[in-house]
Design goal:
2 copies of one chain form a homodimer. In chain A, helix 1 packs across helix 2 and helix 2 packs across helix 3. Chain A is α/β, with parallel strands linked by helices. Chain A starts with 7 loop residues before the first helix and ends in a 6-residue tail after the last strand. In chain A, the strands form 2 sheets. A 6-stranded parallel beta sheet of chain A has the order 2-1-3-4-5-11, sandwiched between helices. A 6-stranded mixed beta sheet of chain A has the order 7-6-8-9-10-12, sandwiched between helices. In chain A, helix 9 links the parallel strand 6 and strand 7. Chain A is built from 13 helices and 12 strands. The radius of gyration of chain A is 26 Å and the shape is elongated. Chain A binds a DNA duplex (16 and 16 nucleotides) through helix 2 and helix 4.
Amino acid sequence: MDANKITIHDIARDLEIDSSTVSRALNNSPRVAKKTKDKILKRADELGYQRNILASNLRRNVSNTIGVIIPRISRHFFSSVIQGVEETAYLAGYNVIICQTLEQFEREKNITETLFANRVDGVLISISMETLDYKHLEKFKKAGIPVVFFDRHCNIPENNNVLIDDFKAGFDAIQHLIDKGCKKIVHFSGPQELEIYKNRLEGYKKALHNNNIPFHSQYVLNSKLMENDGVENAKKLIDTQLEFDGIFSANDTAAIGAMKYLTSIGIKIPQEIAIVGFSNEPISTVINPSLTTINQPGFEMGKIATDLLLKHIKKEKGLPQSQTIIMDSNLIERESTKK
Amino acid sequence: MDANKITIHDIARDLEIDSSTVSRALNNSPRVAKKTKDKILKRADELGYQRNILASNLRRNVSNTIGVIIPRISRHFFSSVIQGVEETAYLAGYNVIICQTLEQFEREKNITETLFANRVDGVLISISMETLDYKHLEKFKKAGIPVVFFDRHCNIPENNNVLIDDFKAGFDAIQHLIDKGCKKIVHFSGPQELEIYKNRLEGYKKALHNNNIPFHSQYVLNSKLMENDGVENAKKLIDTQLEFDGIFSANDTAAIGAMKYLTSIGIKIPQEIAIVGFSNEPISTVINPSLTTINQPGFEMGKIATDLLLKHIKKEKGLPQSQTIIMDSNLIERESTKK
DNA sequence: CTGTTAGCGCGTTCAA
DNA sequence: TTGAACGCGCTAACAG
C-alpha cells in the first residue's frame, strides 16, 4: 500500500503543467488538447502511474462497489450466481462485497448496515429464510441506492426482481412425473414464507388438478432446506408408511439428504424424482440415474441481475422504475431415464 | 450514496468544538476527556452519523480490503474457503474482493493488476493450474503487501503458506485402501506442475513401497481436474483393460466424472475408492457407499489463512517473516463401508 | 486534554 | 484549452 507514490501532481510537475490538466487527460476529457493529452498519457505510462481509486471514489462520492447478500455461498446455486455477478461487475470496473446471512434475519440486518456504511453503489439480494419484514432495506431506497432481488424475492410491489417462473417450474416437474406414470407424488417443499416455495407448491397443485389427481396435504412435507431436513422428511415418509411413486423436491439440498437416508436404510428410491431449483450439477447424474432436474441457471441469473443493477446505478435513460425479469428454467431429463 | 450528509464537522459545529476532537472521540482515542467523548458519541448517535470509510481509508492510506484469488468459486472447496475468509475478515472489519482465475494464467496476471490498483492491504491466493512463474506476485512483496498462499502454493522459499500435508494425505489414503485389501490401486492425479498433486503422488508411491507393492506408471492417470477429465480417464481405464481393485483420486471433481461414466456404462465401480482433497460433502455418501474421503477443511483453512494475513497486515510483533502452517486433513470412512 | 493547521489524491468549479 | 484554487471527509502533527 505504500508503493506507487506517483500522483497526478508528480506527472504534472514533470511536464510543467497543472495537475488539473493531467486529471482531465487521464479522464479522457474533451476539454484538453489532443497533443497535451497524448503527452500526458505517454508520460503517465512511463512513470507507471496508477490512479488512486480510493481518492477518486471519495471525490466523486461513489464506492464503485456493489453488495451481494446471499444465504450461504457454499450452496452451489449461490456460488454460481456469484460467479456471474463477479464477472459482470469486473468487466464494468466494479468491486463486489459478498455477505452471507446464513439464513439469519439478525445477520441480514447487520449486513445491510455494513454495506450501507461501506457506501455501496447498489445491492443484490436473495433474502434469508427468516426474513419477513423489509424495513432494513428501506434505507437503501431512501438513499437512492438501487436494490435488485434475485431468486428469493419478497412479495412487494415496486421491486426489481430476477427470477425463474417458480409456478411453471413446479407445474412442469409434476406434469413430467405424471407423464411418466406417477400418481402419488410426494412434495418436499420449503419455507412457505418464501414466495418461491409457495409458487412451486402452487404449480404442484395445479398440475395435479389438471390431471384430475386429488391433492392430499399429507403428501407435502415442508423443510428448512438443510440436508438434515431432507433426512427427517424421508424418515417421516417411512414412518407414516405413506404410499408414493414419485418425489418432487423444491430444493436440492434437502433432496440429497432424503436420498442419502433412503439409500442408507436400503430402501429403493421411488422410480421418479424431480427437483426444482436444482443447481448442483456435479451430483445429479451420479446419485440417481432416474432423476429429472429443473435447473436454475445461477450463473446467468447473476449476470442478468448485475446488469440490471448496474443500469440502475448508472441511471440509464428509459429504464423502468421497477421490473421483474423471468428467466427460463430448463427441465433436464437424464440419459438413463429417457424413454 | 447521497444520504447521510452528516460529517464530523456537522457534529463539531453542533457541539461548538473542533472536528479533530470529534474524530478522536469517534476513534476512541485516549486523548479526549471521558465527558466530552460521551457527549460526542451521544450526539453522533442522535444525528445518525456514519463515518465515511472511503475518506478515512484515503487519509490513513489503507483500503481495508483483502484480495482473494482462487481458480473458481463454484468448486465446493473454494467456496468453503471463501466462507471462512469472509467470516474472519468481516469480524476484523475488512472487506474482501474475490477474483477467479478460471485456471488461466493470463487472468491471474490481470487480477493481480486489479487488486494492486484497488490498493488491497493483503492477498490470499491459490494459484491457477497454468501458473508456472510468479513474477506477477512480486510487486506485492515490493510494495510491502503481504501474500498468503493456501492449498495450491508455489514452491518458493520465504512464502507464507496454509496447507494440508498432501504427502501424508496421499500416503494415508493408500495405506487405508491397502488395509482393506486393495493391491492394484489406480491413481487419478492432477497437474504435476502443482506441488500438491506432486506430493499426493509421492505419498501414493511411498505407501506402495512400504507395503512391497511395485509401482507401475500406467496406474497413474493425470488430468486437468475437470469432470470431463475424469470421464476420459475412466474410459482409458476401460479401454486399456487395466486390472484394478481400488481408485485413489487426488481430486474430487474428476473422481465424480469417472464414477458417472463407470456407472453409466454399467460397470461396477471397484470396491474401494479414496479421494484426497475432497470437499463436496453433500455428494459423498450418496454417490458411493464404499467411499473414503480425506477431507480438506476449506472453511477452517480460509479462517486460518485470513488470520495469518491480517497479522501480517497489522505487522504484528514477533511474527516470522514467513511460515508454513500445516493443517490436519481428516480421513473419513463412510458408515456403510466400515468393517 | 483540545484546537490549529495541513494534507491524503483526486475532480471540479471559476477565470483567464 | 489551460491554470488556480478549493474541497470530498477524515486523520495526524504540532502546539498550547
